[in-house]
Amino acid sequence: MTRRLIFLLTLAVMLCSLGCSQQQASIEDAKVAKVQAPQAYDAALIAQYNALNDSGYQLMDQGKTEEAVAAFGRQAALIPAGKWAAYNSACAYGRVKQVDKGIEWLDKAVAQGWDDTEQLNGDEDLAALRADPRFAPLVARASATQNAKEGAFANGLPTYPSAIAFPSTDSLERWVAGQQQIIRRNRSIWYGWQHASALVDLEAKRMAALKELKKADPTFDYGLERIRAISRIKSIYVSWGPIADGTVKEVDDYVATNPSVEGQSEAQYRGGLALYCRKHPSMPTDPDWASATLAARARLTQVQPGTKFDGAANAWQLMFDLIEAAQNKEAVLPKVRAFTEKFKNDEPAMQVAGAFFQGDVVASLWPIPIQAVDIDDKPVSLDQYKGRVVLVDFWATWCGPCRGELPGLLAAYQKYHDQGFDVLSISLDYADKTTPDDYRKWITDKGMSWRHVYDQHDWNGPLVKAYLVRGIPSPVLVGRDGSLVAMGDDCRGEKLAGSIEKALTAKAGV
Hints:
Elements: H1 2-32, H2 43-61, H3 65-78, H4 84-95, H5 99-112, H6 117-122, H7 127-130, H8 135-150, H9 169-186, H10 192-213, H11 222-231, H12 242-255, H13 261-277, H14 289-300, H15 310-325, H16 333-343, H17 347-356, H18 358-365, E1 372-373, E2 379-380, E3 389-395, H19 400-416, E4 421-427, H20 436-446, E5 451-453, H21 462-466, E6 474-478, E7 484-487, H22 495-505
C-alpha cells in the first residue's frame, strides 16, 4: 500500500510537471507566434472608399436614406472587409428612426468585426437604436470581439525569432516610418483590433531587428524597450483591453531583473498607465473607477522622485484627484498650482496635464504671453488687444471639428466685432501639406478676415506648447484687461456667444 501511494504521488508530480510545462510552453508559443497583420490597401482605393463614405452622409443630410444606403453598398463592394459600410447603413436608418432596419445593419457590422463600443454608445445617429433592447447585446458582442481578437496580446509583445536585416538603426527607423505611414493610411478602413494587430506586428519586427543591431551595445535595455513598444500601441484616450495586461506582464518581467532606478521607475509608470487604461473609466460613478485608479496609483507611487517620469506620474494622480473632486475642485487647485510650479518645464508632465486638465494648468500659469509673427510678417502680442476681448483659437484647416465651429465663429465675429471682439487664429496646419499661400487662400475663401499666425510648426510650435494644446479646436477667451475669461467647451458652439457677451460687459462691471 505504501509503495502504491508513493507510485501515485510520483505519478501526480510527473503529471503536474507535464501540465505546468505544457502551460508554460503555450505561453511562450503565444509570445513567439507571428501576428496576422491585416490587408493593406493603396491610397487611391482608400480615397474612393472614403469618398463614398462622404457621399452617403451628404445624402443622409438631404433626407435621402435609401440613396445613402445604396452608396454604402457600393462602399462595401469596393472594399468588402472595410469597417464602415454596414455601420453607416445602421446610422442611416437610425437617423430616421427605422429601428428594425438599423438594428439589422448594426448586427451585420458587429458580425463582421466592429469593436468600437465608444462609437456605438456615443454616435447621435444611433440614438433611436440605443433605446431598443437589442442594442445592449450588440455592444456586449462588440466588446467581446475586441477581447477575443486582441486576447493573445495579454501575454506581452510577441518575440519574433528572426529579424529583417538592416545595416543600421537609421535604416531600421526609416523602414518603420514607412510602415507607420501605411498603417495610418489604412486606419480609416480597419477595425480597431486590426489596427492594433498591425502595430503589434510592426513593433515585434522592430524589436527583433533592434535586438540584433544592438547586441554588442551594453547600454541597450531590451526589456525596457519591449515595455515602451507595447505601451505605445494604444492611445491614452482609449481603453487598452488585453494590451494593458500584456504591458503589465512586460513590466513585471522587467522589474524582476532588478533594473536601474530610472528603468524601474519608467516601467512602473507605464504599468500604472496600463492598469488605468485597461478599461479607461471616465468618472468616479463608473463601476471600474475605484479599482482602476487604486491599481494605477499603486504603480505610479513607485516612480522615484527626480526620474524622467516623476512629473508625469504626479500628473496622472492629480488628474484622478480633480475628477474625484468634481464640483469641489477648488480644494484641489492649490495642488495644481504647486504641480505647475514644480513641473512647468517637464515635457512628459505637461503632456499629461495638457491632455487631461489643460484649463486648470493654463489658469495657474496665466498670463501666458504671445510673441509671434502673423502671416503678413507683422508682430503679434496679447498686449496689442488690450481694451478688447480676443479669442485665441488654436485650429487647422484639416480639422473637421474646427471647420464645424467656423460658421458660429464667423457669426460671432460679425455680431460682436464692432463691440470690441477680435479673433486671433493660431494654425496647426502641416507645412508639407499646406503652404502659406494655400493657407491664405483657404481663410480668404471662408471670410476669416482676422489675424492669423501660421509658423508651420504644427504641434511643435512654441505657442502650442506654451498653452498645452493637445487637441483642436482649442479656444481661449481673453478679457479686455488681459484676464483669462474662458476656454475649451465654454468657447465653442452655443456657449461661445454667452462667453463673449460676459467678457464684453465685464468692463462696465456687469
